[in-house]
Specification:
The protein is α/β, with parallel strands linked by helices. The protein is built from eight helices and nine strands. The protein is globular and about 90 Å long. Helix content is 40%, strand content 23%. It has a nine-stranded mixed sheet with strand order 1-2-3-5-4-6-7-8-9, sandwiched between helices.
Length: 313
């Protein structure tokens, strides 16, 4: 049997270990959720080089692919689509598009006619494995966190380049975030007053709840799903990037949120969280159907038409 002093020593050791573990976990959590604002400007840097990778003329439009490089080392891939011919006096309106992770700069395939505007689509600055599953999620976490924090500066760097184009009207550049891109549009739109209007399409607030909704089919046990979703949200460094923390900064410029009534990925509560956090002027538009990925070709074209129609007014 252990003597009382031995038991007391064991208890003291256990308390010290528990306290150290709590401090370590607290420090780790604080590091993961730290405010990224200070690093955005440094990561954006200034435009160091622009490389044209591809050029084609298709159906009355010029399509080009570029790689933008910053003095910070940030690399951004963009695709541009503009009408053939000279721009009108004052330049053309422009839309900067950020869609899903796999869509990236390929999103321009959903824009058959820019209606006289310049359309630019970005790829995410993500270098990790595609669609990591199971244990592969763990080694992918650093790349995910880096991409989350690099995306707002990437949007601003693309805007630096876009505003330098002679056919673009700098007063009429709009930022459109679709699905995964919606939260980043809120962040970059708040950071950069050069965007005349900001769109959040098929996106919402409360990121942990969005992850939880996405796990519904994989994790049936609700308490476990709740815990996993929030752990994943914190591990990815999501709390400081929650769009509801940023969206009010878009005012006094217009914020437009587009939501689908049958969206199986974005719960209505998440839509309402984001819209409630926005300041006037703001508008919430409801469309029929599901998330943009449900019927990508049809839904994406309808959303593009909606945005371009508003831009043309």
């Amino acid at each position: 049997m252990r003597t009382r002093p031995t038991v007391r020593r064991a208890l003291r050791v256990a308390l010290v270990v528990a306290a150290a573990s709590a401090l370590l976990l607290g420090a780790l959590a604080a590091w993961l959720v730290r405010d990224p604002s200070a690093g955005f400007a440094a990561r954006r840097g200034t435009l160091a080089s622009v490389t044209l990778e591809d050029h084609a003329e298709v159906a009355g439009h010029v399509e080009e692919h570029y790689v933008l490089r910053s003095t910070s080392g940030l690399r951004v891939e963009v695709a541009v689509k503009r009408p053939v011919g000279s721009a009108p006096p004052g330049g053309r309106p422009a839309a900067l598009l950020l869609g899903g992770l796999e869509t990236g700069r390929k999103a321009l395939r959903f824009v058959p006619d820019t209606r006289g505007a310049v359309a630019v689509a970005l790829s995410y600055p993500y270098d990790g494995p595609k669609k990591p599953k199971g244990l592969a999620v763990i080694p992918a976490a650093p790349a995910v966190r880096a991409a989350l924090r690099d995306t707002p500066p990437a949007i601003q760097l693309a805007l630096d380049w876009l505003l330098a184009q002679p056919d673009v009207d700098p007063r009429r550049v709009e930022l459109v975030g679709v699905s995964l891109g919606a939260p980043f549009a809120c962040i970059a739109g708040a950071l950069d007053a050069r965007f005349a209007r900001v769109w959040a399409v098929h996106g919402g607030g409360d990121g942990a709840s969005l992850i939880e909704a996405g796990l519904a089919r994989r994790i049936r046990f609700a308490p476990a799903r709740w815990l996993v979703a929030r752990a994943a949200w914190i591990a990815a460094g999501g709390p400081p990037l929650a769009p509801e923390r940023w969206v009010a900064g878009i005012a006094p410029r217009e914020f437009v949120q587009v939501a689908a009534r049958g969206d199986e990925r974005i719960p209505q509560a998440s839509v309402e969280v984001l819209f409630a956090a926005a300041s006037e002027p703001k508008e919430l538009l409801w469309t029929e159907g599901g998330h943009v990925d449900t019927d990508k070709e049809r839904v994406a074209r309808e959303l593009v038409d909606l945005v371009l129609e508003r831009m043309a007014r």
